[in-house]
Amino acid sequence: MPNAGNCLILGGGGFIGSHVADMLLKRGYRVTIFGKRNSKKTNLAHILDRVKIIEGDFNNDVDVRQSLDRIDYVFHLISGTLPATSNDNPIYDIEINLVNTIRLLNASVERGVKKIIFVSSGGTVYGTPTHIPISEQHPTHPISSYGVVKKAIEDYLFMYHALYGLDYTVLRLSNPYGERQNIFGVQGAVAVFLRKALNGEPIEIWGDGNTVRDYVYIGDVAEAFVNALETTTAEKIFNIGSGDGRSLNDIINLISTIHGPRIEVKYLPARRVDIPVNILDISLARTHLNWQPTTPFQDGVKRFYNYLNTQRYAQHVG
After folding, report:
1. 255 and 148 part of one domain
2. C-beta separation of 202 from 46 below 8 A
3. 215 flagged as catalytic
4. Model pTM greater than 0.85?
């Protein structure tokens, strides 16, 4: 187990990163957060006095290199694109995510970084699954640029480990949800559906609502990230999810039970980029990372709902 090392979280002010920061502090690590200049620190307000903040641009090689000063471990959580829109401009996706990550790897080798934890995408790197649940050995045939780039970064991590000894772990994450998640965006069904339910707005669904995904509570995700840091194993790629599937209609029914008032649903034509079913096999993480999710879906959604009510986010919807 690393001994209270220096950790850099790229994108640490975001939904996932702020929870990883919480878990690292809980386990005694020193934490540095790298984020955009003048970005909001709302997710970090409760720990601002316990972390170091570096404001910079992931596109700027100098900013990235300087952020690695005296850093032992890097959590790479930055992505400049979304799965649903990455195919609109694959060149941009490559430039903003793949090229900048290779620069990060070069700088990490030069600065003596010991290990990189990279968040990949369990929902996109496999493409349309041939069997369920999906293990890490499943073929990878992504049908979105987002998934292609994530897989390419995984391959570069393997290469840099083989050539330069840079240790790494890839976490192929399913669909995280929970407190601090952006409810105003287009990604994250649980978050978007909760916002609309709280505001009495109709929920729009692409397709018939039977699309099935693997949803995992953010507190469990943060634990997986830190366990990955503290684990040395020949296995480098792990699925991180719940191991169970929920359809969009299932989510709406649960929210209706929690919320009370009737929820209006509008069904729209299905999108070609949407894979019908994606459920991850997490047995490898159980075995090698000593990790498994402990938060039942119903409990996690209820916590998120109560959090949103407390924060009164619903009042600020434009």
Report:
1. no
2. no
3. no
4. yes
